[in-house]
Amino acid sequence: MRETGLIVIILALSVAMTFASPHFATWGNVRAMLMSFSVEGIVVVGMTVLLIVGGIDLSVGSVVCFSMVVSGAMFLMGVDPWTASLIGISVSALIGAAMGFFVTVVGLNHFITSLAAMVIVRGMSLIVTKGTPLSLFTLPPEFKAIGQGEFYGIPFVIIIFVAVVVMFDFLLRRATAFRKVFYTGSNEKAAQYSGIRTRQVKFWVTVLCSTLAGVAGVIYMSRFGAATPTFGVGMELNIIAAAVIGGASLNGGSGTIFGAILGMALLSVVSSSLILLDVSVYWQDMIKGCILLGAVSIDHFLHSKKR
């Protein structure tokens, strides 16, 4: 029902904007919207799974940036871009493993752990770059094609995004391992009594979220040909908002990848509409915040009614 409602809202808003602005329905604008949320959509996939298990990650924006910075720095040191990217993604996974350790072994909650990681990782990005953006214009064309290339007119970024979404949506609906994510998020004690190792589930989901953020960082590096230490500031707001709007509960136990992507699409359509209508950027942030507040309120109401 949530997904159907989002589709109706997106279509209604798109039709209204088609009449309000002649530029909205053009392929250039649609392509720009798809490109704008495709890479963030990869991070939304990991965030949705983490929200389902009952966690949250405020560090995804910093991890995306750090993946860019590490990969870019390794490339400037002479490492080929593919190996450098693998190192950046691996470092991102290690950050997730560190957060998973503090959550599952030390006993801290995801919010505090990821908040600390957000600040620490951002600081590490500034240390590596010394606060100066890394210019990576010498990246080979075959690597730049990941973020800038096209296949029969369709950007590779969108193809990668669709592949990731389809794969994880299928796994979340069908795979036994991912069903444990729902069981853990719905009732952790009951899951433990059923023989599910809930700590391991939480640990690996945390690693998954950071790893996908690392992948997004590499794609951004390929797309922009640079690594900026301040990139991704505030990205976690869009990521969490999209997942919650799409039906992922902050209490855990519910959510779908498809719904989260629809939430991302709605935010992208809203942003594009506000830009085309020449609305101030300050109002744009306020409107996004109101949409998030409304989604959280609806989620709270539905869970209260269910209880």
TrEMBL record:
Keyword Nucleotide-binding assigned: no
A Pfam cross-reference name: BPD_transp_2
Membrane-crossing residue ranges in chain numbering: 30-53, 60-79, 85-108, 115-139, 151-172, 203-221, 257-276
Domain of life: Bacteria
Keywords per UniProt: Cell membrane, Membrane, Transmembrane, Transmembrane helix
Topology within the bilayer: Multi-pass membrane protein
Subcellular locations according to the entry: Cell membrane
Name of the molecule in the record: ABC transporter permease
Lineage of origin: Bacteria, Pseudomonadati, Pseudomonadota, Alphaproteobacteria, Hyphomicrobiales
